[in-house]
């Protein structure tokens, strides 16, 4: 298998896929300043003239009034307003503010949370990524999930998947034409193609049958490339509460059916509230398990999230799904491909699977989706899951009972 993989990687490089192209320079992380988020409650939509706005402040007739409240709060507590962002999915305006030097941790947040003008306030938390085409034969999912057979039933056609991650190389040979939206939510940085986001996007929806690279689990899905994370020196990927919340709000306001969160960090109220909205709307939210965290880390620990770990993991709860997560070939910046491992890429497999299931049965509730998944030792039997949903056997089938829907 190693000889086959080496030969295929060499073949890909020799085919003119810019193997010698240098990796993109890592973007610089935002300066380390203790920051907080302050949420100001908006009037109900039918009581305000700006109810139709979406991702920014254009035509927001009430913006100045809310800005004045934010400025007053900042003066009273010695804060500096860095940025404001409307989040109509939660009916709040969210302001990112810097605390003054020497402020006691948590003291200002506590005071703001008691202020009648404030819906709630919180610290900004940091999150980390859990890191017949030539390479298709060595993709673990190709054999384990019988992808060639599954595609006789569904390919994720027209399902919108939000990849909330670092930047995706949207003109990569395996991703060109797959991107429905490209947005940048990292303040002070231009959109950049980065390793983690490009790899996650490839696992989900790389083109099939284009003669190069890999094939995504759902090659006919449409991607939202939402850059809420950035690549730092050494290759690690970081995000924070505010950047992730902006991206989640955008995904919800623009009709994402699946949201991939291949990252983990501490429990976070703002992100939890946005995920609650997603779950209430039936959006399939997928999160990567952090093996170093007792509860799997957040957002994987959220009860409505499909928590995913690599199929080599041990000591997992029954609610955690397992998917390929070791030695996965996928897309990389510079029109290249590479090998990756980690629950980030396991989560990407499940997001691709969710796109396939959403094409087949878009109206299923989240509990119905979960109950339809057929498990076997070592992971998911995707063929049997598709058979359970459709009643038609498209591959080497096992007898399965229909889901209780």
Automatic annotation (TrEMBL):
InterPro entries listed in its UniProt record: Peptidase_S8/S53_dom (IPR000209), Peptidase_S8/S53_dom_sf (IPR036852), Peptidase_S8_Asp-AS (IPR023827), Peptidase_S8_His-AS (IPR022398), Peptidase_S8_subtilisin-like (IPR050131), Peptidase_S8_subtilisin-rel (IPR015500)
Domain Peptidase S8/S53, first and last residues per copy: 156-374
Signal peptide: 1-18
Entry keyword Disulfide bond: no
Protease listed as a keyword: yes
A biological process term (GO) from this entry: proteolysis
Catalytic machinery residues: 165, 196, 344
Gene Ontology MF term list: serine-type endopeptidase activity
Keywords annotated in UniProt: Hydrolase, Protease, Serine protease, Signal
Family in the record: Belongs to the peptidase S8 family.
Protein's recorded name: Serine protease
């Amino acid at each position: 298998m190693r000889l086959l993989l080496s030969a295929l990687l060499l073949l890909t490089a020799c085919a003119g896929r810019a193997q010698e192209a240098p990796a993109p320079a890592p973007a610089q992380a935002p300066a380390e300043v203790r920051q907080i988020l302050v949420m100001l409650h908006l009037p109900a939509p039918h009581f305000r003239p700006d109810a139709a706005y979406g991702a920014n402040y254009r035509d927001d007739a009430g913006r100045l009034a809310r800005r004045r409240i934010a400025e007053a709060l900042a003066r009273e507590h010695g804060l500096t307003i860095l940025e404001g962002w409307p989040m109509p999915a939660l009916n709040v305006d969210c302001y990112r503010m810097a605390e003054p030097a020497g402020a006691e941790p948590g003291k200002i947040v506590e005071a703001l949370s008691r202020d009648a003008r404030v819906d709630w306030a919180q610290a900004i938390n940091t999150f980390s990524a859990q890191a017949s085409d030539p390479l298709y034969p060595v993709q673990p999912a190709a054999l384990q999930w019988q992808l060639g057979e599954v595609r006789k039933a569904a390919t994720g056609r027209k399902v919108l998947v939000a990849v909330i991650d670092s930047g995706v190389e949207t003109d990569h040979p395996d991703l060109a034409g797959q991107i429905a939206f490209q947005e940048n939510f990292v303040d002070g940085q231009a959109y950049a193609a980065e390793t983690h986001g490009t790899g996650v996007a490839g696992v989900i929806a790389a083109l099939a049958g284009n003669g190069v690279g890999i094939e995504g689990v759902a090659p006919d899905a449409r991607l939202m490339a939402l850059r809420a994370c950035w690549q730092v020196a050494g290759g690690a990927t970081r995000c924070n509460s505010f950047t992730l919340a902006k991206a989640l709000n955008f995904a919800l306001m623009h009709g994402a059916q699946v949201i991939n969160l291949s990252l983990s960090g501490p429990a976070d109220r703002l992100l939890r509230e946005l995920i609650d909205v997603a779950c209430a709307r039936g959006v399939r939210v997928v999160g990567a398990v952090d093996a170093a965290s007792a509860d799997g880390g957040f957002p994987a620990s959220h009860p409505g999230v499909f928590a995913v770990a690599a199929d080599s993991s041990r000591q997992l709860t029954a609610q955690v799904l397992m998917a390929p997560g070791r030695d996965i070939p996928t897309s990389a910046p510079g029109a290249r491909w590479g090998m990756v491992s980690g629950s980030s890429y396991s989560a990407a497999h499940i997001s691709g699977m969710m796109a396939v299931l959403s094409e087949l049965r878009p109206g299923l509730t989240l509990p119905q989706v979960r109950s339809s998944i057929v498990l076997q030792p070592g992971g998911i039997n995707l063929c049997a899951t598709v058979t359970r949903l459709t009643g038609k056997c498209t591959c080497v089938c096992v007898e399965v009972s229909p889901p209780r829907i």
